C-alpha cells in the first residue's frame, strides 16, 4: 500500500554539474568542490541560454550555449547570523551571532520584470532581487525588514518552494511561497513583487493556522499554476488521525483570492501497482515512497510513480467546497467528508446551493480553510525497489508523454506513457547512470526547446543518446521518443538534427512501431543471374548534385531514379554476394554522401497459425514453440507450411471451458479446456495453464493467454468470478442470491457473513436472525389511519410475502405496499385506523424468523384546527396565512385551504402563502393528515377584491429621499407588506459597460396611516428611498409592490418619476457660523440656499428653533422664509444633557435631510421712552453714590495702614508655616521611602500581584456586571445544546462578514431603546466574540472610527471620543486594553503599584474616619479630616492563624502597627495587610470571616467588635468602638480567629464592581446615628434647594478650612511627588519602544485628520488624548483593582482620583486659569501641570516622528495576542448574549439587510434566519 509521501530532494555531499561518460560520449560540465548546488533556473529567453545556479554561499551565472562556461560568480556567505536574532544582525542586538553558511532556499525568475529572485536561510529567510544580465547587480534588498518580509525557512533542512505569478491584466506580479515549520510564519502566503513593501504579504494573504504549526510539520515539494489556480504539493502529519502519519496533499487556491477564502486541501493516495486509468488531458505525475515511518522523515528506497488527472483533481476540490458550503460538509451514509482544517474557528455551513457558482473564489462569509477526508486515489503506474526516486521531469513529444526520473543512486530512468483505449501503458525505454551513488537533485529541468536536460550532480546531457545506435534497425528498436533514423544521412538522431526531418518519410521515428527501415520491396530471383533490372526501393526526393548508388556487397552500380522507385543493374553472377541461409536476404543501397544499411528480414511469426500460413515457407515446432525454416523439428511434431507442404496438420487450439464457468473467489477449482487437435500434446507429460494478467470488472475474468504451448485461439474463453459477500451484508440479502452461485449465510452471531457454500467452515444458517428496525418515517399519524410509513432496517424479509400481514405500528396493523418493498432493507406500509390516540413501537415479524421492534415510538394523534389569521386577503394572493391548532405536525400534513402554498409547519401552527383566486368570497380550510382530513369549523378565509392604486403624487424627490409620496386607491388596507421599489437603469445613449455600472435597485417601506390623518383603505404614505448621484443620469422606474401586485408609477402618476439634486442650505450667520444669529422679535428669518424648490413644497419643510416651530411662509429656488415664535424657544432636553450651548439651534428638515444652520439669540427690546421722573431719580441717586464713595475712600485709607501692619504679621506666620510644612514633608517622605524600600524587598519574593488576563479583561470589558460572560457557561437546555452551539458557530461565521457586522452595529445604534449601557455591553460582547480574530476586529474598529470621524467633522470634531456614547468608543477602550496589557505588566505596572502602596501606607498612617471616609492624609479636600484628632501608634503582636503559619505547631507572632483611634474593622484590615503581605488579596481570608481577639493573659481572651454593649451612646449618637475604647496597650497580643457563624456569607473575595461606600454608612439604626472620629456635618440633612451652588459651597468650605489643614494636603502631595513623577514618566516615556498599538492608532488619527482636511493641531491633540489617556490610563489610574489583585477603599480612591485628574489636565492644551475660587485639588498641582504638559507634548511628538507601524506589523502582533489569550476567552456565551440583542431587534436588522443589495447578494438575511431557527427555534421565512 502506498500511503503517499511525496519526495523532495535530499542533501548531497557533493552536488555538481559534471561530465558523465556514457557510451563514450562527453557532455558540457561545470563543477565546484567548495560548495553544494541547490537550485537551478534558466533564462526565460531561450536565445540567451543563461543558466543560474543557487548554491551554498554562492550564486553562479553560466553560459548554457557555450558549454556551461562561468560568466559571473557572487559570494553570499558565510555571514554573521543566528536563528534567534532579527535583522539587521550586529554585536549589540545579537551577541550570540556566529558565522553561518547561507544556503540557497529559493531561486526564481520573474519573466515580466526580467529579475532573478534569490532567498537564503540567513537573516530570517529574507530575499533579494538581482538583474538577469548580471547577478552581481542587486536591484532590491531591505536592511531592516519587518516580520512579514521573512520569506524562506531559516533552517537549511526545512523545505521552501516558490512560484512567480502575474495576476490577471498584468498590472501586478506576486510570489506564492510555501515553507515548512520554523516559527509562527504562515505555511503558505502571497508576497508582493511589484508593489511596496516588496516580499511582504497582507495579513489576509496567507493560510491562517489557528493550531500549532509544529504539529502539522509541513514539507513542501513544489508549486505550479493551471488556468486561474495555484497548486501546492506537500506532505504533513494528519493530526486528525490516531496514527498521526504523514500524508500527501494537493492544495489549491484562486489567483484572484487575496484572502485564501477558496483554499482547499485534498489527500493524494498512490495505491499498489496495478493498471492505471488514463485520461486525455493534463496530468500530475508524482513520485511516492511505498512506506514511511512516523518517527523518521526519510522514506525507504522503494518508490512508485502515480499519475493524477488534473481535471479529476479539480472536480474533487470543487465537490469538497460545495459540500462545505451547502451540506455542512456531510454526505449521507458517509458522515463528515469536508471539514475546516488547522483548528480555525469556522465550520462548514448550509448556504444556498448556488454558493459555489456565485462565489467561485469564496467570500468573507464562506467557511475556510477547507479540507477533504476523502482522498484522490490513483494506482501506481510504475515502481522500483532498486533506489528511491528523487526527481521527476516531464516532456511531450508528438503527443506522447515522457518522464525522466532521477533516483538516489544517480540513475536517470526514461519512461514513456501511452494512452490506449482509456488505459495507461508505461514502459522504461532507457536507464542511464549519471553519477554513481550520488542522488539526483529535484531541480531536473528541460531547456525551452526540449533538446537538453539539466541534471544536478550531475550533468547537462541530451535527453536522448541517439548516436549510440549505428544502424536503422537498432535505432528503431530502441523505441526512444526523441530518436529517429535520418534516411538520407544514414544516422540515428533527433528530428531537428536531420536536415530533412520535417519532410515526410525522411525521418523515421523510433517510437512509432509502424515505421520500418528502408528496404527492398520486391526482388526477382530469376533476373539476378541474367542481369535484369529490379525495383529495390521507393523513391526519395534529392537535392541538386545528389544521386543514388546500388551496392551488392562490394560491387557498386549506378541507380536510376524513377517515379515508382530506384532501378539498379545487377552485377555479374560471379560478383553476386552469396545468399545467406536464415530469415531473409540482405542488400545495401548507399547515397553518395553517407552509408546506409538496410536489412530485409523474413517476419518471424510467434503464433502457430500465423507461422504455417506465411508465404516464406516457415514451419511450426509445437513442442519447442518456435517458427523455423527447417523442414522438420529436432523433436516432437512438426506443423508444415500450408503454402509449401501437402501435409495438412492443423494447429491445436482451445475452444471453450468445460463445465461451469462460474468460479468463486478464494476457492481452488479445476478447469477443463475443450479444443481441437489437443492429442498432439499426448507425448508431453506436464504442461501449465498460465494467466498473464486478470482484469476484474463485474466479476468477469478474461484469460489473455491460456496455454504456454501455442496461441491459436480465434476467440477468448472466459470465466465468471463471483464473491457472495459483496452487496449481501445481511442474511436476507444473502438468501435471495441466485442459487447458481451457491451463497449461504455462514458463522455464529458475532461473525456471520455471506460466503460460497464450500468456503463455509462454520455452521450454515438456514434461518435468518430477527429483523432490526433502524428508522421510522413519519413517527405520527391520524387515528383514522392512511399514513404511509417507511420502515428502514435490516433482515426485513426476503420477499414482501414474508412480512405481508405481520407489520404493526403501535399495535395497529399496517398494510404493506408491495411495489415499494426493498429486500431486507425497507418496508412501506399504510396504517389502518386505531380508533383512539395511542403510542407504541413498530414491529415486524418475518415468516419463519424472529420479531423486530423499533426504538422509535409511533403515535396515533387527533390533530385539531382552531383558528386562522388573518381572515381575509386580496384575491391576487401572496398574503401570509397562519393556521393555528394542536398536534399539527401529525404525519406529513398536506394543506388544502383553498389555493395555498405551504411554507412552514410547527406543532401549533401552519404558515401558508395564498395563491391567486379567480373569484372573491369565502373559502373553507382543510388540512389532510395522511388518510384523514380536518376542517376549520365556523371559520373561512375571505378573498377580497384586489387593492388598486389610482393616483400617486408627487413625482419628484431629491437624492437623499424621505419625501412623502401619497398613494391613493381602494382596498389598500388588505395589503400586508406594501413596498416601493426604485430601479435605476442606464439611458440608452450610454455604452453597455457604463449601463451595467448604473443598474441598481432600491426598496423603501410604505407607511400606512400617519398620525391618524389618512384612511388606511384608501391612502398610503410612502417616503422615497435614498439613491446615489448616478440617479441623475439614469432612467428611473418606480413600482409599488402590494404583496403579489405590482403597479408602475408611470401608469398612476401624472408624469414620470425623477430624482433631483439635494437642496443646500447655508448657515444663518455665514460670516462666522460658530457665532449665534441675532434675531429681532417680530421679523422673518431668511435662509439662503440652492435647489430648494426642485423636489419639495413649502408645506413639507419643517423648520424649528429649539423646541419651537418656525412656520415656513415662502420657498423659492434660493430662499426659505419662515416666521419664528415670538419668544425665544427653549433648548431640547437632549441638548442640555449633552452640555450644548444654552441657545436654541435653528434646524430645517427636508425629507431625510436635516440641516443645522446655527444658534439663534433673540435680541431684547429697548424702551422707546425714558420718563422725566426717572431722569430726576437717576440724578439724585448719582449724587448720593458720589458722597458714599468719598466716605469709603477716607475709611479705606485708614484701614489700609492697619491692614499693612496685619499683613506683615501674617507673612511672618506663613513663613513659619512653610518651614514647618517643609520639615514635615521631609520627615514623612523619609519614613515613606524607608517603608517602601521594605516593601520592595518583600516584592522580590512575592512579586507584584497582577491579575491574570481573564480577570483583567472581565473587569475592563464588563464593569458593573456581577457575573460576566467570561465566567458563565452556556445556559441552554441540554437537549438543545448541540443545536444552539451549532447556531452560535454559524453566528460567529456571520460576524466574519464585515458588511453584516457594520450593518448590525449601525442598526442597533439608531434604535431609541438601545441605551448607552447597552452600547457598551454589546461592544464588549463583540470584543469577546472577535477576540480570536483581532486583526479583523481592528479592521472593523477602523471602519467604524472612520464613520465616527465623518459624523463629528460635520458637527464639532473636538468632541469626538469624549464620552462613551457609541459602540465604537467602547470598542476602542477594549482594543487599547487588550493591546496594552503586556505594557502594563512589563513597564508601567511596577510604578503604578508602588504609587498605590505609597498612598495606602501614607493614608493608613493617620486617622481615617470609618463613617464619613475622611482622612488626615489625603489629596482630596472633600475627603480631608478637618479636625485635630489625638492618636498614637501601637505595635501589636499578632498570633498567626493556622492557615497562615509557615509550618510546625509552635505559635508564631508577627508585629503589626495600628492606631489606637482605629475601629476594630480598621484594625483587622491593617493586621491582615501586614501579616499576609506576601499573599494577594483574593487569597486572604475576608475580614468579616474573622474576629479580633485580645489575649491579655492565659485565660483572658476578649473578642473586640465595632459595636457591643460597651459602646458609648450620647443622645442620638453612638460611637464606634476603637482600641482606645478597649484600652488596648502598646505591645498587646491579639489574634485573628475564625468567626463561628454558619450564616456568614462573606467567604470569598469575588470582585464586586460598582461604586464603593464607606465601611459604615451614617444612616439611622433604630434612631441612633453612628460616628467615629467626627460627627457628620449637618449639610447632608439640608434639603437640596437650600444647598446653594457649587461655587458658593466651595467658597464657604474654603473659608471654613484653617490653613493648617491645607498643609496636610501639601504634606501628602510632597510625600507622594516622587511616585507620581515615576508613574507619569513610565507612561509618557519614549526611551523604551512605544507600544505598537499606540503608534498605530495615533498614525490612524493623523491619517483621518489629513483625509478630512483637519489642520488644527489642537483637534488632533484632543483626539489622541481622548483615545489613550482618557479611555485607558484614566480608567486604570482610578481603578487599580482592574490590573492588581488588591483591596481598594474610598480614601485611597479619593487620592487616585486627584492624580488621575491631574494626568488628564496635563494632557489638555487649553490653559486652566486658576484663581481664588478654583478647586483646591487643581491648585495642589498647579505648578506641576505645565511640566507634565511638556512631557505629554514631547510624548506625542516623539511618537509621530518614529517609524510608522505598518498594517502587517500590527496584524502580526494582533495575531500573536489572539493566539496567546485564546484559552482565556469563552466565545459561545458572548455570542449567545449577542444573539439576545439580535432577537430583540430582529425585524430591524433583517430589514436593514434586505434593503442593502450587497447583503442580499451575500444572502446575509437568509443566514441570520438560519441562525435564529437554530438558536431558539425561531419561525422564519426560510
UniProtKB/TrEMBL annotation:
Keywords: Cell membrane, Coiled coil, Disulfide bond, Glycoprotein, Membrane, Phosphoprotein, Receptor, Repeat, Signal, Transmembrane, Transmembrane helix. Residues 1-24 form the signal peptide. It is a single-pass type I membrane protein. One of its GO terms (molecular function) is semaphorin receptor activity. Belongs to the plexin family. Receptor for SEMA4D. Plays a role in GABAergic synapse development. Mediates SEMA4A- and SEMA4D-dependent inhibitory synapse development. Plays a role in RHOA activation and subsequent changes of the actin cytoskeleton. Plays a role in axon guidance, invasive growth and cell migration. This is Plexin-B1. It comes from Amphiprion ocellaris. The lineage of its organism: Eukaryota, Metazoa, Chordata, Craniata, Vertebrata.
Amino acid at each position: 500500500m502506498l500511503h503517499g509521501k511525496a519526495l523532495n530532494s535530499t542533501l548531497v555531499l557533493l552536488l555538481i554539474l559534471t561530465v558523465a561518460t556514457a557510451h563514450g560520449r562527453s557532455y558540457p560540465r561545470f563543477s565546484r568542490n567548495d560548495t553544494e548546488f541547490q537550485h537551478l533556473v534558466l533564462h526565460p529567453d531561450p536565445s540567451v541560454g543563461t543558466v543560474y545556479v543557487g548554491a551554498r554561499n554562492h550564486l553562479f551565472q553560466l553560459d548554457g550555449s557555450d558549454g556551461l562556461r562561468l560568466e559571473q560568480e557572487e559570494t553570499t556567505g558565510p555571514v554573521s547570523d543566528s536563528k534567534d536574532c532579527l535583522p539587521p544582525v550586529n554585536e549589540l542586538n545579537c551577541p550570540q551571532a556566529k558565522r553561518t553558511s547561507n544556503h540557497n532556499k529559493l531561486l526564481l525568475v520573474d519573466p515580466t520584470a526580467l529579475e532573478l529572485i534569490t532567498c537564503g536561510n540567513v537573516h530570517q529567510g529574507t530575499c533579494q532581487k538581482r538583474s538577469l544580465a548580471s547577478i552581481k547587480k542587486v536591484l532590491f534588498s531591505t536592511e531592516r525588514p519587518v516580520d512579514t518580509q521573512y520569506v524562506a525557512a531559516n533552517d537549511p533542512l526545512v523545505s521552501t518552494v516558490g512560484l512567480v505569478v502575474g495576476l490577471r491584466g498584468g498590472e501586478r506580479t506576486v510570489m506564492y511561497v510555501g515553507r515548512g515549520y520554523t516559527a509562527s510564519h504562515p505555511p503558505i502566503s502571497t508576497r508582493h513583487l511589484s508593489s511596496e513593501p516588496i516580499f511582504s504579504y497582507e495579513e489576509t494573504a496567507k493560510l491562517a493556522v489557528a493550531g500549532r504549526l509544529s504539529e502539522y510539520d509541513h514539507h513542501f515539494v513544489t508549486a505550479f499554476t493551471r488556468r486561474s489556480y495555484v497548486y501546492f504539493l506537500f506532505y504533513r502529519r494528519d493530526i486528525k488521525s490516531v496514527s498521526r502519519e504523514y500524508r500527501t496533499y494537493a492544495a489549491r487556491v484562486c489567483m484572484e483570492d487575496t484572502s485564501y477564502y477558496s483554499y482547499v486541501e485534498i489527500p493524494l493516495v498512490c495505491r499498489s501497482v496495478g493498471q492505471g486509468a488514463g485520461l486525455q488531458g493534463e496530468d500530475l505525475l508524482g513520485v511516492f515512497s511505498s512506506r514511511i515511518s512516523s518517527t523518521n522523515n526519510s522514506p525507504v528506497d522503494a518508490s512508485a510513480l502515480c499519475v493524477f488527472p488534473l481535471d479529476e483533481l479539480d472536480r474533487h476540490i470543487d465537490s469538497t467546497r460545495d459540500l462545505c458550503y451547502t451540506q455542512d460538509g456531510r454526505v449521507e451514509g458517509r458522515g463528515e467528508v469536508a471539514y475546516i482544517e488547522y483548528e480555525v474557528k469556522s465550520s462548514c455551513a448550509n448556504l444556498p446551493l448556488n454558493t459555489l457558482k456565485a462565489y467561485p473564489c469564496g467570500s468573507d462569509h464562506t467557511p475556510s480553510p477547507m479540507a477533504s477526508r476523502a482522498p484522490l486515489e490513483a494506482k501506481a503506474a510504475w515502481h522500483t525497489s532498486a533506489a528511491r526516486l528523487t526527481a521527476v521531469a516531464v516532456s511531450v513529444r508528438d503527443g506522447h508523454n515522457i518522464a525522466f526520473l532521477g533516483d538516489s543512486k544517480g540513475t536517470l530512468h526514461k519512461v514513456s506513457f501511452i494512452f490506449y483505449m482509456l488505459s495507461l501503458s508505461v514502459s522504461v525505454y532507457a536507464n542511464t547512470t549519471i553519477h554513481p551513488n550520488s542522488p539526483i537533485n529535484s531541480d531536473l529541468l528541460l531547456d525551452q526547446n526540449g533538446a537538453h536536460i539539466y541534471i544536478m550532480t550531475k550533468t547537462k546531457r541530451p535527453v536522448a543518446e541517439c548516436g549510440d545506435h549505428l544502424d536503422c534497425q537498432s535505432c528503431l528498436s530502441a523505441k526512444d521518443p526523441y530518436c529517429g533514423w535520418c534516411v538520407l544521412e544514414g544516422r540515428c538522431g533527433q528530428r531537428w538534427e536531420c536536415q530533412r526531418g520535417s519532410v515526410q518519410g525522411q525521418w523515421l521515428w523510433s517510437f512509432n512501431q509502424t515505421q520500418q527501415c528502408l528496404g527492398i520491396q520486391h526482388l526477382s530471383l530469376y533476373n539476378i543471374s541474367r542481369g535484369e533490372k529490379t525495383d529495390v526501393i521507393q523513391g526519395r526526393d534529392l537535392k541538386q548534385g545528389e544521386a543514388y548508388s546500388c551496392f551488392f556487397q562490394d560491387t557498386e552500380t549506378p541507380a536510376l531514379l524513377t517515379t515508382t522507385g530506384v532501378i539498379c543493374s545487377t552485377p555479374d553472377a560471379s560478383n553476386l554476394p552469396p545468399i545467406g541461409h536464415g530469415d531473409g536476404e540482405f542488400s545495401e543501397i548507399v547515397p553518395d554522401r553517407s552509408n546506409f544499411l538496410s536489412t530485409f528480414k523474413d517476419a518471424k511469426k510467434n503464433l502457430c497459425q500465423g507461422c504455417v500460413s506465411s508465404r516464406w515457407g516457415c514451419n511450426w515446432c509445437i513442442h519447442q514453440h518456435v517458427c523455423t525454416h527447417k523442414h522438420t523439428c529436432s523433436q516432437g511434431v512438426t506443423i508444415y507450411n500450408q503454402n509449401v507442404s501437402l501435409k495438412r496438420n492443423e494447429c491445436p487450439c482451445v475452444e471453450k471451458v468445460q463445465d461451469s464457468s462460474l468460479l468463486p473467489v478464494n476457492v481452488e477449482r479445476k478447469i477443463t479446456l475443450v479444443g481441437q487437435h489437443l492429442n498432439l500434446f499426448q507425448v508431453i507429460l506436464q504442461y501449465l495453464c498460465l494467466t498473464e494478467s486478470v482484469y476484474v470488472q463485474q466479476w468477469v475474468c478474461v484469460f489473455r493467454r491460456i496455454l504456454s504451448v501455442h496461441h491459436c485461439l480465434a476467440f477468448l474463453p472466459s470465466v465468471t468470478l463471483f464473491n457472495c459477500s459483496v452487496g449481501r451484508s445481511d442474511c436476507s440479502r444473502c438468501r435471495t442470491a441466485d442459487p447458481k452461485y451457491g451463497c449461504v449465510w455462514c458463522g455464529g452471531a458475532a461473525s456471520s457473513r455471506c460466503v460460497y457454500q464450500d468456503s463455509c467452515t462454520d455452521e450454515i444458517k438456514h434461518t435468518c436472525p430477527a429483523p432490526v428496525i433502524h428508522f421510522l418515517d413519519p413517527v405520527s399519524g391520524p387515528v383514522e389511519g392512511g399514513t404511509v410509513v417507511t420502515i428502514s432496517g435490516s433482515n426485513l424479509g426476503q420477499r414482501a410475502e414474508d412480512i405481508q400481514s405481520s407489520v404493526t405500528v403501535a399495535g395497529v396493523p399496517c398494510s404493506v405496499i408491495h411495489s415499494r418493498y426493498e429486500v431486507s432493507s425497507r418496508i412501506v406500509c399504510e396504517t389502518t385506523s386505531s380508533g383512539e390516540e395511542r403510542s407504541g413501537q413498530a414491529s415486524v415479524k418475518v415468516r419463519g424468523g424472529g420479531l423486530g421492534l423499533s426504538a422509535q415510538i409511533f403515535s396515533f394523534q387527533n390533530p385539531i384546527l382552531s383558528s386562522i389569521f388573518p381572515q381575509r386577503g386580496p384575491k391576487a394572493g401572496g398574503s401570509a396565512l397562519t393556521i393555528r391548532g394542536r398536534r399539527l405536525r401529525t404525519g406529513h400534513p398536506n394543506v388544502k385551504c383553498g389555493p395555498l402554498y405551504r411554507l412552514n409547519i410547527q406543532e401549533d401552527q401552519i404558515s401558508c402563502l395564498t395563491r391567486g383566486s379567480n373569484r372573491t368570497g369565502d373559502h373553507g380550510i382543510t388540512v389532510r393528515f395522511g388518510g384523514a382530513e380536518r376542517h376549520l369549523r365556523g371559520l373561512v378565509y375571505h378573498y377580497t377584491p384586489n387593492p388598486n392604486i389610482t393616483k400617486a403624487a408627487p413625482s419628484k424627490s431629491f437624492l437623499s429621499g424621505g419625501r412623502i409620496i401619497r398613494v391613493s386607491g381602494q382596498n389598500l388596507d388588505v395589503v400586508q407588506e406594501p413596498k416601493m421599489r426604485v430601479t435605476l437603469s442606464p439611458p440608452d445613449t450610454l455604452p453597455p459597460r457604463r449601463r451595467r455600472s448604473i443598474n441598481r435597485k432600491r426598496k423603501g417601506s410604505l407607511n400606512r396611516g400617519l398620525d391618524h390623518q389618512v384612511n388606511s383603505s384608501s391612502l398610503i404614505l410612502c417616503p422615497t428611498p435614498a439613491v446615489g448621484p448616478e440617479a441623475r443620469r439614469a432612467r428611473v422606474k418606480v413600482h409599488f409592490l402590494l404583496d403579489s401586485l405590482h403597479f408602475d408609477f408611470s401608469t398612476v402618476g401624472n408624469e414620470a418619476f425623477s430624482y433631483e439634486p439635494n437642496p443646500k442650505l447655508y448657515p444663518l450667520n455665514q460670516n462666522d457660523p460658530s457665532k449665534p444669529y441675532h434675531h429681532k422679535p417680530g421679523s422673518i428669518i431668511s435662509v439662503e440656499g440652492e435647489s430648494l424648490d426642485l423636489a419639495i413644497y413649502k408645506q413639507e419643510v419643517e423648520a424649528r428653533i429649539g423646541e419651537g416651530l418656525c412656520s415656513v411662509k415662502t420657498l423659492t429656488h434660493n430662499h426659505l422664509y419662515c416666521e419664528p415664535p415670538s419668544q425665544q424657544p427653549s433648548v431640547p432636553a437632549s441638548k442640555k444633557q449633552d452640555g450644548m450651548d444654552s441657545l436654541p439651534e435653528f434646524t430645517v428638515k427636508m425629507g431625510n435631510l436635516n440641516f443645522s444652520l446655527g444658534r439663534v439669540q433673540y435680541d431684547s427690546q429697548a424702551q422707546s421712552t425714558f420718563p422725566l421722573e426717572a431722569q430726576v431719580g437717576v440724578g439724585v441717586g448719582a449724587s448720593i453714590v458720589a458722597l458714599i464713595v468719598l466716605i469709603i475712600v477716607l475709611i479705606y485709607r485708614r484701614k489700609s495702614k492697619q491692614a499693612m501692619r496685619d499683613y506683615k504679621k501674617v507673612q511672618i506666620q506663613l513663613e513659619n508655616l512653610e518651614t514647618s510644612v517643609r520639615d514635615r514633608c521631609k520627615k514623612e517622605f523619609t519614613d515613606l521611602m524607608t517603608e517602601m524600600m521594605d516593601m520592595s524587598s518583600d516584592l522580590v519574593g512575592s512579586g507584584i500581584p497582577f491579575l491574570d488576563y481573564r480577570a483583567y479583561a472581565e473587569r475592563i470589558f464588563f464593569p458593573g456586571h456581577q457575573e460576566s460572560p467570561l465566567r458563565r457557561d452556556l445556559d441552554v437546555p441540554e437537549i438543545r445544546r448541540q443545536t444552539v452551539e451549532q447556531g452560535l458557530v454559524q453566528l460567529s461565521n456571520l460576524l466574519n462578514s464585515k458588511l453584516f457586522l457594520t450593518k448590525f452595529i449601525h442598526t442597533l445604534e439608531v434604535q431609541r431603546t438601545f441605551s448607552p449601557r447597552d452600547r457598551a455591553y454589546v461592544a464588549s460582547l463583540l470584543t469577546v466574540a472577535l477576540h480570536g480574530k483581532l486583526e479583523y476586529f481592528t479592521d472593523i474598529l477602523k471602519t467604524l472610527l472612520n464613520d465616527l470621524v465623518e459624523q463629528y467633522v460635520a458637527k464639532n470634531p473636538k468632541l469626538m471620543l469624549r464620552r462613551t456614547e457609541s459602540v465604537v468608543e467602547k470598542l476602542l477602550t477594549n482594543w487599547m486594553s487588550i493591546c496594552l496589557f503586556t505594557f502594563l505588566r512589563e513597564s508601567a505596572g511596577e510604578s503604578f503599584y508602588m504609587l498605590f502602596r505609597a498612598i495606602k501606607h501614607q493614608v493608613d498612617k493617620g486617622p481615617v474616619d470609618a463613617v464619613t471616609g475622611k482622612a488626615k492624609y489625603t489629596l482630596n479636600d472633600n475627603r480631608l479630616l478637618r479636625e485635630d484628632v489625638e492618636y498614637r501608634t501601637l505595635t501589636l503582636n499578632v498570633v498567626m492563624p493556622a492557615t497562615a503559619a509557615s509550618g510546625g505547631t509552635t505559635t508564631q507572632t508577627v508585629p503589626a502597627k495600628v492606631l489606637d483611634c482605629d475601629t476594630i474593622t480598621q484594625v483587622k484590615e491593617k493586621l491582615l495587610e501586614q501579616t499576609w503581605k506576601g499573599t494577594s488579596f483574593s487569597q486572604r481570608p475576608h475580614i468579616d470571616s474573622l474576629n479580633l481577639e485580645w489575649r491579655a493573659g492565659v485565660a483572658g481572651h476578649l473578642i473586640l467588635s465595632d459595636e457591643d454593649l460597651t459602646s458609648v451612646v450620647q443622645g442620638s449618637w453612638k460611637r464606634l468602638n476603637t482600641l482606645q475604647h478597649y484600652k488596648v496597650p502598646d505591645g498587646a497580643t491579639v489574634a485573628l480567629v475564625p468567626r463561628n457563624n454558619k450564616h456568614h456569607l462573606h467567604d470569598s473575595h469575588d470582585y464586586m464592581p460598582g461604586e464603593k461606600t464607606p465601611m459604615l454608612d451614617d444612616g439611622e439604626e433604630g434612631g441612633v446615628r453612628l460616628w467615629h472620629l467626627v460627627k457628620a456635618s449637618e449639610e447632608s440633612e439640608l434639603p437640596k434647594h437650600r444647598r446653594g451652588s457649587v461655587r458658593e459651597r466651595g467658597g464657604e468650605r474654603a473659608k471654613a478650612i484653617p490653613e493648617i489643614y491645607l498643609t496636610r494636603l501639601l504634606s501628602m502631595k510632597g510625600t507622594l511627588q516622587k511616585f507620581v513623577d515615576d508613574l507619569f514618566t513610565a507612561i509618557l516615556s519614549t526611551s523604551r519602544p512605544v507600544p505598537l498599538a499606540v503608534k498605530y492608532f495615533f498614525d490612524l488619527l493623523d491619517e483621518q485628520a489629513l483625509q478630512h482636511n483637519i489642520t488644527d493641531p489642537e483637534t488632533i491633540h484632543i483626539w489622541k488624548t481622548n483615545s489613550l489617556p482618557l479611555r485607558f490610563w484614566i480608567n486604570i489610574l482610578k481603578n487599580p483593582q482592574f490590573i492588581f489583585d488588591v483591596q481598594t477603599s474610598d480614601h485611597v480612591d479619593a487620592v487616585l482620583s486627584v492624580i488621575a485628574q491631574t494626568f488628564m489636565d496635563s494632557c489638555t492644551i487649553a490653559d486652566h486659569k486658576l484663581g481664588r475660587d478654583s478647586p483646591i485639588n487643581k491648585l495642589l498641582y498647579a505648578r506641576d501641570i505645565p511640566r507634565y504638559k511638556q512631557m505629554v507634548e514631547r510624548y506625542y511628538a516623539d511618537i509621530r516622528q518614529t517609524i510608522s507601524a505598518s498594517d502587517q506589523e500590527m496584524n502580526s502582533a494582533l495575531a500573536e495576542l489572539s493566539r496567546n489569550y485564546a484559552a482565556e476567552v469563552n466565545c459561545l456565551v458572548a455570542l449567545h448574549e449577542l444573539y439576545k440583542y439580535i432577537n430583540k431587534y430582529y425585524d430591524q436588522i433583517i430589514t436593514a439587510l434586505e434593503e442593502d443589495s450587497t447583503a442580499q447578494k451575500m444572502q446575509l438575511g437568509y443566514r441570520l434566519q438560519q441562525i435564529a431557527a437554530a438558536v431558539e427555534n425561531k419561525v422564519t421565512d426560510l
